[in-house]
Give the backbone structure.
Amino acid sequence: MLIAHISDFHVFASAPETSLVRADAEAAARKVVADLVAFTPKIEAVCFTGDLTDGGSDADYALLKDILSPITVPVFVIPGNHDKRDTLRAAFSDLPFTSASTLHYEAEVGGVRILALDTLIDGKVAGQLDAEQLAWLRRKLETVTDGLTLILMHHPAFPSGIKGLDDMSLIIGADELGEIVRNYSGNLRILSGHIHRPYQAIWNGVFAAVGGSPAFQIDLDLDQTHAEPGIVSEPYAYYIHRLNESGGLSVHARYVSI
């Protein structure tokens, strides 16, 4: 089974909210989707880790749905800090959202359990996991499944080493999340976005990955004295998670020139 991990399209119907977002974000996103759809063997599910749009309007989500329309397999989305809960919920009403206040949910595809979390703080760049979601996740992970469990969350809890961006990642609930995942004995991975630079980590014993962004990519700046790095022109990378019949797992970066 092949599962794609994409993130941070930041598409907009009229004008971008974020100054760094490229003017042709729609065209870049369409190139990524076309590459994903054309990949062989066929990708069987897509995990999209937030900042689906740049402003969260109804028109933004209508455009996003059109961009994603060539994908005929399940797409699991979560909100990022540029998304809006009400309009996202309406656009993806087929997803089994659990709560009236946040957009977390559980789903399953091909024996893989999806636990999708909502880290959005209204009006803020940084993210949080509230007590309700942490309790929900704890209950879900009390059941150890035979297959893979994927936690989706926009703001990463695991640091990139890029100081300015780590300071506005998951600022509330990270320690509690670390304790929960550390105690899970099954096969678990965490997929995130937000950083606009692809990287991977082992965090509390769990494999974790952040997807890149076709809207703009951040330079690799590991100097801890810098507030925030600039942008860099690099091919966009999304991940393909390969699960074989014997339970083996591998992760591949797929590069798209945009």
Notes: The longest strand covers residues 236-243. The chain has a mean pLDDT of 94. The first helix runs from residue 25 to 38.
